[in-house]
Amino acid sequence: MIVAERFAGLPDYPFPRLRALLGQKAGEALPEGAIDLSIGEPRHGVPEFLARALSADFAAYGRYPPNEGTPAFRRAAAGWLARRYGLAPDFLDPDAAILPVNGTREALFLAAQLAARAETQPRPVVLLPNPFYQCYAAAAAAIGAEIHYVPATAETGFLPAFDRVAREVLDRAVAAYVCAPSNPQGAIADLAYWRRLLALAERHDFLLFADECYAEIYDGAPPTGVVEACAGSPAALERVLAFHSLSKRSNLPGLRSGFVVGGEKIVTAFRVLRSYGGAPSPIPVLEAATQAWSDEAHVVANRTLYRAKIDVAERILGNRFAFRRPPGGFFLWLDVGDGERAARDLWSKAKVKVLPGAYLATEVDGVNPGAPYIRVALVDSLKTTQDGLERIAATL
Questions:
Q1: Quick check: 118 pLDDT over 90?
Q2: SS3 string of 279-310?
């Protein structure tokens, strides 16, 4: 059997590694009393009004859905973008700049194909933050690119400083992935950061893939988005795809619904690519998603509950482990000295499951920037989250 060598060097996926570390099997139920704070799966409850939307046109599951989605979905996505980022009503054409996707993971993976080049020398480069979402690395490997990891540490404000990358590497770059608010650190990219990155992409001629799935979960002011940074320059949008999802915003990871937005030319190219290699969203899913993007009440309630859990975390852990309130997202990024050892201890002594930070990063020049950390997901109920945090404080 032939297996593509280009995938041989990919980092192991975090959760199988975590099961092996803790001596668990795939699909094994948690022991009684155990608390899982390892995975970023929202558990705040599905908005009830979506049940009606999903069943209103049940017969539509018997038809192939259109690749480009429905006009109502595209208008809802465009309307949310305009409200969320203060865009002029005519800045985005819903029919040309927006495309629905089956969750953002498959879209983030497929997007790298837009940057693929014929076999040329020197070898093209894809820039990734470190730590990073493993999907980005697989996408880079799929096009045969060299991966260049860019540290996203306390020293860089937990965002990748792409402008510190050597010029000869930037000149070979074909794409850069960035997650903002960042996973796992919760850092927010301000307008100046986005504009510097857009200018860098223009200067060195690479595409920018902005993973903004945590854009609606924030502690203070709403995070700036890359589309907002392009508002004064429509040409800049032509080298951008931004990815938005209902998984975190609306507690709907199982719906597998999101969208991409960008310049009309790049979205057109992505639409063609997905017509060959992507699965369109079912029509009932699009109808439910249309309603979800149009409703803000459930999002405000969602955000309020996350803030309450961050308040509890600050009270319990605020003077330990280099605790900082995450400006965005719902993870704590705690410096415990040795993340793997802490994860083992928390499981064996307190039955609390967390993710070692090293599993979300990779070693470069002998250093794994995630090694001292654990990632703690504040996704469960307030009571369960508080219990888990108190166990962490008592154990470590």
A1: no
A2: CCCCHHHHHHHHHHHHCCHHHHHHHHHHHHHH
Which range is least confidently modeled, 28-37, 50-59, 80-89, 327-336? 50-59
Query: CA separation (Å) from 392 to 60, 137, 308, 311?
Result: 48, 31, 18, 16
- Model pLDDT for residues 141-169, shown as the tens digit of each residue: 999 999 999 999 999 999 999 999 999 99
3-state secondary structure of 97: helix
State which fold the 5-45+298-395 domain adopts. Answer: Aspartate Aminotransferase, domain 1 (3.90.1150)
Q: Enter the pTM of the model.
A: 0.95
**Collapsed DSSP state (helix, strand, coil) of residue 395:** helix
pLDDT reported for residue 55: 82
Which pairs count as long-range contacts for 361-370, CB under 8 Å and 24+ apart, including other chains? 361/130, 361/131, 361/132, 362/11, 362/130, 362/132, 362/137, 362/149, 364/130, 364/149, 364/151, 369/130, 369/131, 369/151, 369/152, 369/153, 370/130, 370/131, 370/184, 370/339
Q: Return the pLDDT at 143.
A: 93
Domains of the chain by residue range: 5-45+298-395, 65-295
- Distances in Å between the Cα of 103 and the Cα atoms of 62, 100, 256 are 21, 9, 4
Q: Is the pLDDT of residue 1 over 70?
A: no
Cα 186–192–194 angle (5° rounding)?
65
pLDDT digits (tens, 9 = 90+) for 173-204: 999 999 999 999 999 999 999 999 999 999 99
The angle formed by the CA atoms of residues 214, 244 and 267, to the nearest 5 degrees, is 150
Q: For domain 65-295, which CATH number applies: 2.60.40.420, 3.20.70.20, 3.40.50.300, 3.40.640.10?
A: 3.40.640.10
The position carrying tokens 């309603």 is 291
Determine the residue type at 196.
R
State the DSSP string of 229-273: HTTT-GGGGGGEEEEEEHHHHTT-GGG--EEEEE-HHHHHHHHHH
CA atoms within 13 A on the CB side of 225: 29
**For residues 376 and 357, is the Cβ–Cβ distance under 8 A?**
no
pLDDT of 2 reads 57
